[in-house]
Protein 1
Amino acid sequence: MKAEERAGEPRRTNLSSAVTAGTGVERGVWAAPGRVNLIGEHTDYCDGFVLPFALPQRTVVTAERLGRPEWSVTSTLTGETVTFDLSEPVTGWAAYVAAVVWALRDAGHDVPGARLHVDSDVPGGAGLSSSAALECAVLSALADLGGLDIPLAHRPKLAQRAENEYVGVPCGIMDQSASTLCREGHALFLDCRTMATEHVPLDLAGQGLAILVIDSRAPHQLADGEYAARRAACERAAALLGLPALRDAALADLSRLDDPLLVRRARHVVTENARVLETIALLREGRLREIGPLMTASHASMRDDFEITVPEVDEAVETALAAGAYGARMTGGGFGGCVLALVEAEKLDAVAEAVHTAFATRGFRPRPPSPPSRPRRPPPILKGRAPS
Ligand code: GLA
């Protein structure tokens, strides 16, 4: 990783130069994208490596400052308005907004009251990080409304803390980092221990390739205990091995674990970290097609060792491969959500059609495949507008 790309030295080119500490803007529009993870699943909370890229789909927050410590948030998706002042716990989708207010305050920031309006085309419940997109867009809005001086590099941890502590989902740092830091045409190589970043070129179209994102429509729910159980197993395995995290484990270490379940969980993390590094080495050399087998091996590891796949995503992967994909894997936390398939651009429709046919045969119901994904820069954190 290049020293200048360390997260401690953030670029702030997206931020309004008009916003300086203590003098926020009155109102504005901010946005943050969803993500897919190319490879590196359930490695983030093991201090490991991930490689997400931003989606074109994003959450947009229109906000204006209020003169009192109260937040009122309306969602286009639900039509609801929720008003809170943090004296009572907030639940449901608005909890993600309240969580950001809470985390900013808890970090010592003087968060301005605000009226916010949320709209989004990031599909919810599909493992595409709709929660992080909401958190990150709200965080940017409140930071600029309040003139809070929060470097971009510090924002993912704040948003993660909001989700961990307030919402109660023990997620890692990947999604909030992707939503905040990804750049157009690149995947984000993130070392989740040091938070060092490298923007790795991912020119799919330039090589005649595309990534098909298939929403399996199988329910995906991080808060249901399975995610937390995987995280706890990884932490237990590391503790038994006497290591700070599974990032520090080698395959040979795993023979020191007695519990076969912990061996499987740890083996997924150790091999997945290695696959991320191999993927990056190939991407740096422009050998995009060759990452396919690593994607497929990642899926097998999630299926057999980490045990987080479901029949719908396994079917989508197998069908995509049989239809000519170079590689395919589930992306995100697991138990449903989306599958990525790396395909020749000209085969995209044929692979999508094959998955539809296979799902119809099995009685599964996928959502229509999304348009081919190209890595996209998170939409600029749009300038807050001065009062007119
Ligand atoms: C979810 C979490 C992330 C990460 C992935 C699995 O998306 O929010 O932190 O753990 O699952 O890689």
Protein 2
Amino acid sequence: MLQNMISKQITLYSRPKGKPVLENFETKNIEIPEIKEDEILLEAMYFSVDPYMRGRMNDAKSYTAPFETGKPITGGVIARVLKSNAANFKENDIVTGNLPWQQHCIAIAAGILKIDTALAPASYYLGILGMPGLTAYFGLMYIGKPKNGETVVVSGAAGAVGLVVGQLAKINGCKVIGIAGSEEKATLLKNEFGFDEVINYKTTTDIKTAIANFCPGGVDVYYDNVGGEISDAVIANINFNARIVLCGQISLYNSTEIPMGPRIQPMLLTRSVLMQGFIISNYQTQFSQGSKYLAMLVQQNKLKYKETIVKGFNKLPAALLGLFEGDNIGKMIVEA
Ligand code: NDP
């Protein structure tokens, strides 16, 4: 029955210049062959779209290889096992892995992990219990090192990473100021996620003064998800001995020229500020400890979570592009 199955695949058709467009992607029909020894046949349930994918659309050397034109986009996927020729997997197991944008695919069992859907809904493993949650945890706790009573500012605050950062900072006894791009997001962060204050950067003309007003003693930890002028405004308020966690620079990912900002080094130097970038895979050996901690907080209802679920495999490109328009609250997920 499953032999010669026809499925759909989305490939990178062309590399974007500046902001990506739907025409950069192509949907194709493909044939799925029979599985061999140690292989499993998977049916996609949820796809993760993430800002780092924009970097992979460029033909540039980075910490992950570029997507190849004509080949499927790959990323985090949750899938159901339809058929298995591997000892560790059986039909109907729910699994995750770095997989192609395909409705069905064949995977080598060694690169696939089973997930526990009794602990949390399957899609959470692409968000709070997956890469974005771990990014929030390791970046904040290992670089930001928030202390009770300190002031933490997080940009991209209503996104997958930002939501977790803000709540972890509250759990650690900090005052938390979020920066996000709509009134709806600002209200939600304050009313449902316990943020002390939120700045809507799209309607606030002077972000530097807004930060100064909310952080009279200065900013002790800045968790930077966006870069650009928002970060310039936060760093202008940085406290002595502060830590700046360089997690993401989404405001610059579509730049076609080298962006210029203020020279911040004198400020960092005279205030003894630590600024450190990181890639989540730096902490790979500690993932299981981080996941267990986050899962415990979710189970205890100490960490709330939100997703924006876009329905339909063919909506994958639009959902990815939507990250750059602020379309998501919490983790952006596409349901196959
Ligand atoms: P989000 O869920 O936060 O989605 C992206 C959000 O960014 C949008 O919703 C939008 O919210 C905001 N945004 C988009 N364009 C701009 C802009 N020009 N200026 C300011 N904000 C903008 O994504 P993630 O939580 O997955 O990722 C957050 C950041 O963390 C990204 O920069 C990402 O690259 C980075 N990251 C880094 C990792 C690492 O290993 N270092 C791992 C994972 C993520 P709004 O409405 O507020 O504008």
Protein 3
Amino acid sequence: MVVLNARLSALCALLLAAIADAQSTSELSSAVSASSSGASASEVVSSIVTSVASSASASASSATSSGVTSVASVSTSSSTSSGVTSASVSASVSAAPSGSAATTGPPLESTHITIPISKYPFSSFPVPSASPVPGVYPSTSPKSPPPPGSRLIPDFGPAWKAAHARAKRLISGWSLEQKVATTTGTGYGNGLCVGNIPPIADFPGLCLQDAPLGVRGTDFVTVFPTGLSAAATWQRALIRARGLAIGQEFKGKGVEVALGPMMNLGRIAQGGRNWEGFGADPFLSGEAAYETILGMQAAGVQACAKHYINDEQEHFRMQESSNVDDRTEHEIYFHPFLRSVQAGVTSVMCSYNLINGTYACENDYVLNELLKNQAGFQGYVMTDWGAHHSTMSAVAGMDMSMPGDIVLGDPSSGSWWGANLTAFVQNGSIAESRIDDMAERIVASWYLLDQDQNYPEVSFNAFFPNDPATNGHIDVQSDHYKIVREIGAAGSVLLKNTNSALPLKKPRSVALIGNDAGPSSRGPNGYTYAGGDDGILGVGWGSGSGLFPYLISPLEAIQARVRKDSSGSQVSWFLNNWDLAGAQATALDQDVALVFVNADSGEGFLTVDGNEGDRKNLTLWQNADNLIAAIAEVNRNTIVIAHSVGPAIVEPWIDNPNVTAVVWAGVPGQEAGNSITDVLYGDVNPSGRLPYTMAKRPEDYGAQLITGGEVDDILRIDYTEGLNIDYRHFDANNIDPRFEFGFGLSYTTFSYAGLHISPITHADSTSASLEAAWAAGKASPADEGAVAALWLHRPAFEVTFTVKNTGAVAGTEIAQLYLHFPSSAGEPPSVLRGFEDIQVPAHGSAQGKITLSRYDLSVWDVDAKGWRKPSGEFTFSIGASSRDFRLKGTVPL
Ligand code: BGC
């Protein structure tokens, strides 16, 4: 425990927070938006850097309070000789003017940021509460996880323990400076990777590199389907395979830490980075995060669960406070991170935003209490790039500063850590045991995945990918294109199919209409960070994108498919979305018109077509609605294919009888054209399901994008909808969506029967008393690691049922289990608590099996700080979507 003089602590807190405020990088977006077309990567980097540098220096000396935040008059004196910038400081602080709330514009955060010294007792390395149980909770390493969908809960506790012991030994001989060096990046652009930890004695350092869908910033890599497309498959085996292949490519390039997966929840339909994540439901997102991490780390690369937490929109992402109640935090936003911890994730990236008035990266509650204490996380927390705001964040639970410099790319800006952290230990502000803890967490994570054994050297330079001296151009793609193609197809959602318009049956004439059908006019990588919507949409934009080795468009794939059919088909195309007459002329009299449209979004440092990261509205892009209407006017077999980063409003044309079919094809990576062709021609029977709700009107969504704000403002984003994210809001308020969460059609039909539920008894009695207490309505204990405990998460009930394929083609049904809590619980009407992909031959049947744990049947008790079974009757439904329930049952509690 750190003991710190209270006055010094308060002064430091205010001062450092003030400097942090001054470092606001909101100008980043505007500066970079100017360079969104045609600029080279290094140009953009320097543009970011200049912008941040000028922002920091301008506001570091600005003493004014906007009347919104309460920080004022800060002066710093930097000691240049030692490189210490903030150890000796003078500050004067004046209170915010009373009644300072803005009279117009968005709601603003009035609580000022503070950095409390941890009030939570965190021991260095919480250990799991139970010992391994063979056949249930096997002791294993993240390098050998149980297979996808397994009921085994892997116990990584012993592996962590061994890794920590080795780390402790390694760092025991290190000086304070050496230990600090493990925690502080070398500075943006100073090293081969987007983040770099320097070599220290026998420890070779770390390369940290984006992105969640593959290695960014280098060549000869695969651009995998986005997280959103992977989640839309609802297939754990595919999600695991994607994670494994991604992990292999990172390792092949010599990256120790892959900066993904991303698991923010798509609270806002327009949220710019939703496509990087796994959709708008915590359970689905949690399963996808779990499988992805197990896959990545099995390959030997460290995964990073990001962005922790409540980072749900791009607008003002560095200047917004997400205000979230504790129950919502636990049940909704924290869940995917808990699943990540259970998957043995080694690192977590804290986000740019504030949570309840405190920056995520110095938020004692979310870092020390939620993540390290309650979930028992034994790895390390790194900052998002530039999300570090103070030296004292070390005592709030942060472990690694990324990329290390205060102003990205400006070594003269110094570092919050590095020499400052050393000085804070030397002057008694921070206990050295905390530094030991940080270094040990980092080094243990490296040992956990055997990265000390023949790990490849970094063979690329993310900042200068064409520099011959530092780029080995090593090909790590293997045959990963196969999994890309498969997931692209399996993640495509068939939304409408009348008159059996699909699959296509060797049509004699096919018209391909729309820009999204063809290649980009600039080639696959013609826009920096994929910041352009031109041609087939394979990825969204920003740091989550990748450099395509190639990008198959529908135009290429469909032509190849037509030739394979050799049935005398003809293909014509028209790729201009604005020349409606030209498009109509092409579609006229064709057997089928395939209209390809899209909607794009990305990270807020780039603006594309007026969309500053977040989408500015929910309509499809590039005149799509008019294009579809025009084609449907001349062709009675118009089929719409949308590649989209999320939901869009389809009301203008969805009921048009000439629009005979609609496929929502996600954002599928480099095999986009092949994946959709497989679905259109019936080589793959679609089984994808929507990982979010598609509303009829934007205002039907329960949470909206917050815009506006002045340069110094901290926007207030109140999560007033609480537990009612996405479909839960529609259900709770009886709002009809256009297509509900979990919806998706097939080329066949399925019926359900034979529901059975039974308790699972187990031979070991290790947790009998905990289980009995839970059954009696007591909250789970508030011990370290308690929310990840075996007894809470092991299967407690088994639900079985039969799915019959009532059609003539084989297909995969995604059976979903929705729990209906007793009314005493105050839960939404239906919550997803299980799903399974069930492959059924034509006219055949197969059994579905889904388990429920005690955790699944609990709510977070804020007062008791534990998971508790509410009283009353629990019912559940099994069905094909969140509104298509086929079987109903009661949990025998
Ligand atoms: C993004 C992170 C990314 C990091 C490094 C940040 O702007 O939010 O997701 O990993 O940059 O590129």
Protein 4
Amino acid sequence: METKILNASLDENIIICADVIMSGGLVGVPTETVYGLGANALSGDAVAKIFATKGRHTDNPLIVHVASPADVQIVVREIPDMFRILSNAFWPGPLTLIMKKSDVVPDEVTAGLDTVAVRMPEHPAMLSLIKKSGVPIAAPSANLSGKPSPTKAKHVFDDLFGKIPYVLDGGNCRVGVESTVVDISGDTAQILRPGGVTYEELEKVLGVAPTIYNTALADSDAPRSPGMKYRHYSPKAPLTAILGSPKMSSDFILTHIDDCCNGFKCCGGVHKVAALMFDDFASANPAVVTFGESSDHNDQASRLFDALRQLDSLDADIILAQVPDEKGLGYAVANRILKAAASVQHV
Ligand code: TXA
Ligand code: MG
């Protein structure tokens, strides 16, 4: 199968892709967070193709995307009070809410759980595609499992060429990290995955601090957020997250980048070191990929996954990465870098 990239701002292209969704196929779709690999969420057979195409574990459930808060009624059994507050504040946008599922949602979507993850995305092309398809669209990030999430149509094309007919090109993703996943199926809101809506924003709207699900304390056989047990976003070369102030971590990286594995005691020979650094602390070394100023968490989020893909193309043996502070969107950015990391070094 040839994969074609279609301009998402043309209605005729939305219609072509809606036809694919309605006939049980898969399409690469733009959202404001990352690109998704979409299928009809009400068809178990269509959804099963997502897992096969991505190489995703079938016990890792998917997010169902709806075009309005009212459409949530189709896929959930009961609407918790917190839903109104959170959807009013953050939808359309990068917030996924976990609620008790209704019977129309196939087990393939939820991996057999009695809850379903739902989100109303903000990207106009995605909203239009859901409306034209006439069904909610289940979509995980449109990367091959183990690769960084795609934030450009080209990333989807590179990962899934020959496996899907179309990628709808809606431009670079505005947010750049995935949605925040919040479980509201119980009495209190619990963050299962940090993302585009920040902890501080959730706390302000809820009037209480949300709890954060700690995967380290979880029973590894039955984690609350199944996706978290898999290592994501891993670059080809092992990445070491360098923790410390921007000045300390950059001093550490810049002394090692020309000096191979000095201090790493990892090899008897020479390692090619590449680095992920803040714009305001980087050197002009071609092995350095930057992802925004140290204080600009929005820019870091929108550039991170593309930067990880660029680092892959450098064919390094080791990647050293600066990590932002965890305020605001920095929390989600730091979370993704630490997930990509094979090790951590404090400086
Ligand atoms: O921004 C996003 O969320 C993107 C775009 C395409 O919407 N999607 C995305 O999907 O990141 P994915 O499949 O890569 O991540 C979905 C996460 C996984 O960690 C999964 O385990 C969790 O949501 N999840 C889905 N359903 C769940 C449920 N019923 N209970 C707990 N966690 C769930
Ligand atoms: Mg993903």
